Each structure stands twice: as structure tokens, then as C-alpha cells.
Amino acid sequence: MSKGTAFLGWGAIVVATAALAAFAAVGGAATKTVKVTITDTKITLSPKTAPTGKTVFAVKNLGKKIHNFRIGGKTTKALAHGKTATLTVSFAAAKSYPYLSTLPKGQTKGLKGVFKVTKAPQATTGNAKAGKAVFTSSGCGSCHTMAAAGASGTIGPNLDTSKPSVALITSRVKSGKGAMPPFGSTLTAAQIADVATYVYASTH
Question: Pairing state of beta strands 151-152 and 32-38?
């Protein structure tokens, strides 16, 4: 690309767990809250996946029997009909974790499943709104395709399909490569961080 076109229900329990979903101070990582509904025949999770890091399971037993909820080596207390509990689990690896109710003993058929933990979204430090302005004013759309910006350029990579990482976007904008020249001297570090955040957020 040319120098002139820079690249680029539970009631109180839900209220309490929602407070834990605030962004952490480092990396923008957020605690995920998952609603767990248990009946006498199945356990339903919503959502069924979460990124690595802390996940709070808000559990409610709607079954007539006493049940509990176990995942990641942690187990809630025994819950009678209508009772609730929360369970906080830190998932370090992106993989599938089995969950189940161990109560009542010998009568737990169907009360199990698999919860999928995915790789946590990449932390960003820029401002996406400001990055959109940089993307537009720098004419990035004349070289790149990115649906969020209404851009359909074909000179550079299609950002929607290539889905570059924040690190790659930052590197290309700052140092350039191939047909793309470096822009480290024409864009500030803050502008580069902003446009990297905008492109990443728009394509992932």
C-alpha cells in the first residue's frame, strides 16, 4: 500500500455475579458469568463456552431432588429445589472441561456435559473509536477490505479473512513490509495503538 494510505431470573445472585464481570486492571480481561440450570434430568449452561481466565457459574436447582454442580475440580454445596449458589473457577488452559452433578448418588444419569474453554481474546491498549477515525482519515480502506469500515480495497490483505493479531497490525503499521511502507514516523504511538485496536476488534 502507498505512503498516503496507512494500513490498517437469578435475582440477587445474578446481580452479584454481574459485578464480577467488570474488566480487570491488567489486559482488559473480563470475568465471564455462566447461568447453570439443573433439573432432575439435565444440566443446561448459558453460554456453553468461555475464554480462559475466571468464570463464575451462577447455579440454580429447579429439580425436585437435591443436586450440586461440579466443574474444574470445584463443587457447589448440595442444593434443594429452588436454591442457588455460585462457583468461581479459573481456567488456565483452552480445552473442554466435563461438568456434572454428583447428587443424588446413583441417580445422576444425564446430569453431565462438557464446557468448552477457548483462548482468551487478545488484550488491546488503544481506543477503537479513535482508531476508526485514523483508519478512515488515512485512507486504509483504499488498500484493504474490512466490512466494519465499509472498505473494499484489494491492494493489501483482506482484513476480514486474514484476521491479523494486534501485534501484527502494530508491526505492519509501524515498520511496514513489502509494498507497505513504515508509518512509525507519520503516526503517533497512540494512533497506531488505536487503529490496531479498531482493526482487531472489527475482525475478531
Answer: unpaired
